Amino acid sequence: MDVGHVRTAATAALGRRLAIKIAGFFRKSAITDISPPERFERKFYIVPENIGFAHSLLRQFCRPDREYPVDTVNSLYFDSDDLAQYERSASGEYRKDKVRIRWYGEVAHLSGEVPVFIEVKSRRGFASSKRRERLLVPASHLRGDDLARGIVSRSVLMETLARLGHFPEEPLKPVILISYRRHRFSEMLTGMRVSLDEDIRGSVVAPELARRPSLSYEITLSGGVIEVKGQKIELPPTLRQMRILDVDWGRFSKYGACLDAYFTTPGTVARLSPPGRIVQG
């Protein structure tokens, strides 16, 4: 018997079995991307009176997205009991991770089973990345008390986060639902992704927060925000024209801004505006 031939055949068989196992793993995880590329994300706050002008300006040098040019984005954000992620966002820490469940479309128009995405958005300084996994849930889970229960069970949430490579240090709970109207574009020269978000609304769902009698748990932020996402930190020449909108690159967080507004006494000047901006109602 040719011992060398037997060893070669055995090695080949082992390799085939290993390849089958790896292929099976990736088939099961086909909708999970645990190593997404990092991107630079820049945000520019737009005062209310300039939103129409901003939309017209973007259309001069950007193409509307072919598949989803306009839709409603909904995100249920999770945080710890002491709102650790909110505090990190407010303090501008270098390392931040947000956990949310996202879906698209007006909730009143959804029926049957609806695709949702459990997402982990990570930021390290100016660079960010997003990992997510798609699930189907009944449309009824996206309304009322089911939001306060988190849409999916705790075990489903934690197992999904583990597959995404995220292991929270503290238990998470649903805190606030944030919805907004998003206009999507791609910059003509570079293909860089651009979006204009407006009508940003927040609704606190955490019972211990929503029970505070002095606060209204429904928030509508003033103005909008332009987001630019790409592999380079430098803006292309076309997008630099946004300076005529009197905008600055800032770290605008919808999650942070909505909770800031919620915790600020109603009637306070600039309550519904981002830090550094005063927008009179």
Would you summarize the structure shown here?
The protein is α+β, with helices and mostly antiparallel strands and 281 residues long.
Describe the structure.
It is a single chain. The protein is of the alpha+beta class and 281 residues long. It has 2 domains: 1-30; 36-263, VTC, catalytic tunnel domain (mRNA Triphosphatase Cet1, Chain A), CATH 3.20.100. The protein contains 7 helices and 11 strands. It has helices spanning 3-28, 51-61, 84-91, 145-148, 154-163, 207-210, 254-263, and strands at 39-46, 62-64, 70-79, 95-104, 113-124, 127-138, 173-187, 193-204, 218-220, 224-230, 249-250. Strands 1-6-5-4-3-7-8-10 form an 8-stranded antiparallel β-barrel, surrounded by 4 helices. The longest helix is centred in the first third of the chain and has 26 residues, at 3-28. The N and C termini lie far apart (90 Å). 29% of the residues are buried.
Poorly predicted ranges: 1-30
pLDDT average, as an integer? 83
Number of domains: 2
Number of helices: 7
For the secondary structure, the number of strands is 11
Shape call:
globular
Which fold name is given in CATH as the topology of the largest domain?
A: mRNA Triphosphatase Cet1, Chain A
Helix content: 25-40%
CATH class assignment of the largest domain: Alpha Beta
- Strand portion: 25-35%
Q: State the secondary-structure class.
A: alpha+beta
Order of SSEs: HEHEEHEEEHHEEHEEEH
Biggest beta sheet attributes: 8 strands, antiparallel, barrel
Strands ordered across the widest β-sheet: 1-6-5-4-3-7-8-10
Our measurement of the CA-to-CA distance between the termini, rounded to an integer number of angstroms, reads 90 Å
What is the CATH superfamily label of the largest domain? VTC, catalytic tunnel domain
The value of Rg in angstroms is 22 Å
